[in-house]
Structures are given as structure tokens and as C-alpha cells.
Amino acid sequence: MKHCYECGTALTHKACEYEGLVPFCDSCNTFRFPIFSTAVSCIIFNKTEDKILLIQQYGRPDYILVAGYISQGENAEQTVIREVKEETGLSVIHHRYMKSEYYEKSNTLIFNYCCIVDSEDVTGMNHEVDKADWFSVNEAEAVIKKNSLAEKFLVNALQHKALVG
What would the DSSP string read from start to end of 48-69? Predict the structure, then answer.
């Protein structure tokens, strides 16, 4: 953040007790801590944890993970349950936090979860999802969008044998 989000003045860095150097607006006489969006990304397993659900969206050919922004007043776990239900029609029966990554392109901190859903029936997909397919764990690794944050999350989860149940 280079400018104050209230008045537009260029920010300087000023020592803030116990925080170190923090962007400061001389005009507002206020510290301006970073503002960013928060989201979740979901590695969705079937009940037997031998298949992973990947989706395609917005006319793009790449397979990615279900993801969505955290709504005001909602925690990350509630978002996992809501986003999976909204996009796929499936109900999360168990979830586990894995790791987080900051995604600079959208100024978003993304929390990654593995989850198990109640069914493999994806006929309840909403308009945001063009296609949803179940893949074996090895197939999912092979088809997920290369060099993406989704791939990074998936590889991390599989390296840590992060099956949920």
C-alpha cells in the first residue's frame, strides 16, 4: 500500500510501538496497516479419500480447486462449507486446515483446506462451475493447472499425506 485509503496521501514509514515500521499517513495522522482480501481454497475428497474433485470455471480449460472469498462475519471454516455447497451442491462432512499463501495478483490471503464430502454426485453444480470431475489422486496431480497456487496447495497436501478422515 503506497497511499492512504482515506485521503490518498502518499504514505511514509514510521515506527509503531511493538510493530516496527508501519505505513503512516501524515495527513490523517494515522497508521495504515495492510488491507487485503481473504479466501479459502478446497481440496475436495470423496468419502473413501481416493478421489479428488477438480473444477473448470469461466470458460477456461484448466482444472482448479473450488475456492471463494470469506464473507464479512464468516470464519474460514464456514466459508469452506458454504463455497463447496454453493459451487458443487455437495455437503462437507469433515475438513482440515492445511496452510495459507498470499496471492499477490488479487491481494488475497488464501487459506487452504482438505475436506471430505457426502457424495460424488455433482449434478448440483451452480452457474460458476463449467465442469466438475473426480480424479484419482495421481490423476488430479497430473491434470491440475500447472504452476498455479491450486497445484501448490494440492502438492503440499499430498506430500504431507493430508488425507482428512
Answer: TSSEEEEEEETT---BB-EEEE
**Could you tell me the three cell numbers for 165?**
478422515
Cα–Cα dist 148/146, whole Å: 5
End-to-end CA distance of the chain: 41
d(CA 94, CA 69): 20
Based on C-alpha coordinates, what's the Rg of the chain? 19
pTM: 0.85
List, in order, residues 6 or more apart from 138 with CB less than 8 Å away: none
DSSP at 50: S
Contact (Cβ atoms closer than 8 angstroms) between residue 24 and residue 11: yes
Strands 37-45 and 108-117: parallel
pLDDT in tens, 111-141: 999 999 999 999 999 999 999 999 999 999 9
CA dihedral over 114, 118, 120, 124, signed as positive or negative: negative
